[in-house]
Design goal:
2 domains; two-stranded antiparallel ribbon; 52% helix; mainly alpha; single chain; 7 helices; elongated; 219 residues
C-alpha cells in the first residue's frame, strides 16, 4: 500500500524533509511510516503518515512485542510527534535554521547495506574475480550497540546463519591469499572450499536481507 503522491509531496514540504522524530534534515533518506499499521487496519490516507528518517523508521519497526525491551513507539505518540513537528515548522520556522547533528546511517540500515554489498561479492566465484572478503563490520556493530538482540528470532536467526557462513568463506578466502597460485596443490583446494562456502552464502544472504526488510516494513 502507498500514499497518494500529491498528498505525500505536500506532507514532505510541510515537514521540510526533516524527520518528525529526530528533526534532522533527511533529503532522500526519508520514508513515510503508517502511524496505525496497515496490518492492523491503518489506511493509506495521508493523515496516517509520519515522515521519518531511515534510522528512526528502523527504531519504530524494531520493537519486539514477544521480547519487550525499552519503550515501544505507540501510534498515539507518533501522531503527537508528527503534529508537534509540523506545528514548529509552521509557526516557528526559525527553528529550522539552527545547527543539526549529522545524519548518521544507523546500525540496522547499515546492516541492510552491508548485506546488499555481500550479495554482490557472492556473485564473484571465478578464478579471475574471486578474492574480495565479505564485510561483517555492521553485523558486529549491531551486536555491540545492542540492536541485534532486539530483533525477533525469526529475523535474528537467518542473519546469524548468513554471517556464520560469510565468516567461514572469509577464512577460505584469506587462506587463498597466502598461497601461490598453481594448477594443482593447496590453492585449488582452498579455491574449491571458498566456492562452496560462497555458494551456500548466496541464498542465505538473500533470505537474511528479505526477512529484515519485511520486519522493517519495506516488503
Amino acid at each position: 500500500m502507498v500514499f497518494n503522491r500529491s498528498n505525500a509531496d505536500q506532507l514532505l514540504v510541510a515537514c521540510h524533509r526533516r524527520c518528525c522524530i529526530c528533526h534532522r534534515f533527511c533529503g532522500v533518506k526519508m520514508e513515510l511510516h503508517h502511524i496505525d499499521p496497515s496490518g492492523s487496519g491503518g489506511g493509506d490516507n495521508i493523515d496516517n503518515a509520519i515522515p521519518v528518517c531511515f534510522e528512526c523508521h528502523a527504531e519504530i519497526q524494531l520493537y519486539n512485542d514477544a521480547q519487550p525491551r525499552g519503550r515501544k513507539f505507540h501510534s498515539s505518540e507518533l501522531l503527537a510527534h508528527k503534529e508537534q513537528w509540523l506545528r514548529i515548522c509552521r509557526e516557528s520556522p526559525g527553528a529550522l535554521l539552527g545547527p543539526q547533528s549529522p545524519l548518521d546511517v544507523g546500525p540496522i540500515q547499515a546492516l541492510i547495506d552491508e548485506l546488499e554489498f555481500n550479495a554482490e561479492i557472492a556473485q564473484r566465484t571465478a578464478e579471475d574475480t574471486i578474492g574480495a572478503l565479505f564485510l561483517v563490520a555492521q553485523f558486529e556493530r549491531a551486536i555491540q550497540e545492542g540492536v541485534f538482540s532486539l530483533l525477533p528470532d525469526s529475523v535474528r536467526n537467518p542473519i546469524s546463519t548468513a554471517y556464520a557462513t560469510l565468516m567461514r568463506a572469509n577464512m577460505y578466502l584469506e587462506k587463498m591469499a597466502t598461497l601461490p597460485w598453481s594448477g594443482s596443490g593447496a590453492w585449488p583446494q582452498a579455491h574449491g572450499c571458498a566456492q562452496k562456502a560462497i555458494a551456500c552464502a548466496q541464498a542465505e544472504i538473500q533470505k537474511a536481507r528479505s526477512v529484515l526488510l519485511e520486519h522493517l516494513g519495506h516488503s
